[in-house]
Amino acid sequence: MEITIHRPGELTSELRAAWHRAMDESPEYANPFLAPEFTAGVGLFRGGARVAVLRQGGVPAGFFPYERGPFGTGRAIGLGLSDCQALVHRPGVTWDAGELLRACGLSIFEFDHLVQEQRPFAPHVTGTFASPVIDVKPGDGGYPEWLRATYPGLAKTTLKKERRLGRDVGEVRFVFDERDPEMLRTLMRWKSAQYRRTGRMDRFSRPWIVALAEHLFRVREEHFTGVLSVLYAGDRPVAAHFGPRSSTVLAAWFTAYDPELHYYSPGLMMHLRTAEGAARAGVTLVDLGRGDKEYKDWLKTRELRVGEGFAARAHPVALAQRLWRRPVRGLRNTVLAHPGLRDPADHLLKAAGRLRTQGRAARIASPAGRTERLPKR
User: Fold this and answer.
1) Which residue range or ranges hold the BioF2-like acetyltransferase domain (predicted)?
2) Best CA proximity match to 110, nearest among 48, 40, 61
């Protein structure tokens, strides 16, 4: 096995075509997060992004995207954003994890959404987790008919709320592939506010993530397209979702809604409309991503399994990294897996989020009650 290392922007059209063929030949690699376009996008904003190309008999047979950090620490490309990770390869190709890490100059490789079929990494998996998916297929008729046939338990309540939204705000309409960049910025504002409101880390406070989303929104290729879907009531946007799609898989990525309209359940409306729209656009699978959420239990048709862990060589840096990161991940997983711990933690995060929001509002307001412009950070 010959292994060469490249920056994502250095991949030739021939190598990208070989990567796409490997995706097409194995359904488990059809996820858009495994496409070269996603890796190339991350590479524009993350200097450590690399791709190892595996060749057999001189022919490209596998592609391993990763990010290289200080002292040979490595992580899956877009770790923390990507909901699917793998060494994408043609059927029948095998490799040695230690040899791969040596070729990449890595002492350790961290992953948290690894495709289950990655057998050479199997000894390094510390836990596997459910990743709910929706198997979708085009329905006959319009959205109400599709909803009643696919989700009979949710159909009556959802359609009732949509009719009420139409009466109160404006006629409800859905755009599966919205090309207005201002709507993407609206979605990011909503999501950023949601992160802060619920005490979570605000991903869109990081300029490189904002820039990555804007870049991927403009990518329109067969194996990767950034899809922005928007639910409107009249001319007013109610909810939106942005995520990448391949030729057959749509990844549920960022969903948010106008908090002033929360009593209409716009988030659930958005997920249902997106699934139906994806089916009509030729998608066969909507990947909801790892994580326990009530709406995922309602919508899923089955579950995939993804792995979390650290592939490492015998190296002091690998030992130190694992001793630091593994307890943090273990604690988080323990909390998420037990409702008796998860629910109090969730309430605590939301309370902290409210306090931060109130504190920010107090800092903005002047002593005289006037609103002042804060300096840019």
Assistant:
1) 156-296
2) 48
- Looking at the structure, do residues 175 and 159 belong to the same domain, yes or no? yes
Distance CA 150, CA 143 (A): 10
**Beta-strand pair 59-68/49-56:** antiparallel
- Give me the residue label for tokens 């139409």: 166
What is the pLDDT at residue 43? 98
Q: Nearest Cα to 134, choosing from 274, 229, 310? A: 274
Could you tell me what percentage of the chain is helix, strand and coil, using 3-state DSSP and rounding each to the nearest 5?
50, 25, 25
Kindly list the distances between the CA atom of residue 343 and the CA atoms of 131, 283, 329, 337, 355, in Å, as whole numbers in the listed order: 20, 34, 18, 10, 19
d(CA 302, CA 311): 28
The runs of H, that is alpha helices, within 57-132 are 97-104
Does 178 lie in the same domain as 115? no
- Rounded to a whole number of angstroms, the distance between the first and last alpha carbons of the chain is 48
Q: Phi and psi dihedrals of 260, rounded to 5?
A: -70, -15
Confidence of residue 350 (pLDDT cuts 50, 70, 90): very low
Higher pLDDT residue, 234 or 330? 234
Task: Give me the domain span that covers residue 233.
Answer: 137-283
pLDDT tens for 126-174 read 999 999 999 998 776 789 999 999 999 999 999 999 999 999 999 999 9
**Residue 51 maps to which CATH number?**
3.40.630
Rounded CA separation 72/271 (Å): 40
* Statement to judge: residues 45 and 90 lie in one domain: yes
Task: Note the pLDDT of residue 132.
Answer: 97
241 belongs to a structural domain: yes
pLDDT of residue 137: 84
pLDDT at 115: 96
Query: How many separate domains does the chain show?
Result: 2
Please tell me the pTM assigned to this model.
Answer: 0.85
- Residues in the chain, overall count: 377
Q: 35 vs 31, 129, 284, 365, CA distance in Å?
A: 7, 22, 17, 47
Cβ atoms 284, 137 nearer than 8 A: yes
Q: Is the pLDDT of residue 326 over 90?
A: no
Confidence of residue 363 (pLDDT cuts 50, 70, 90): very low
**Listed residue (72, 17, 10, 4) closest to 43, CA to CA:** 10
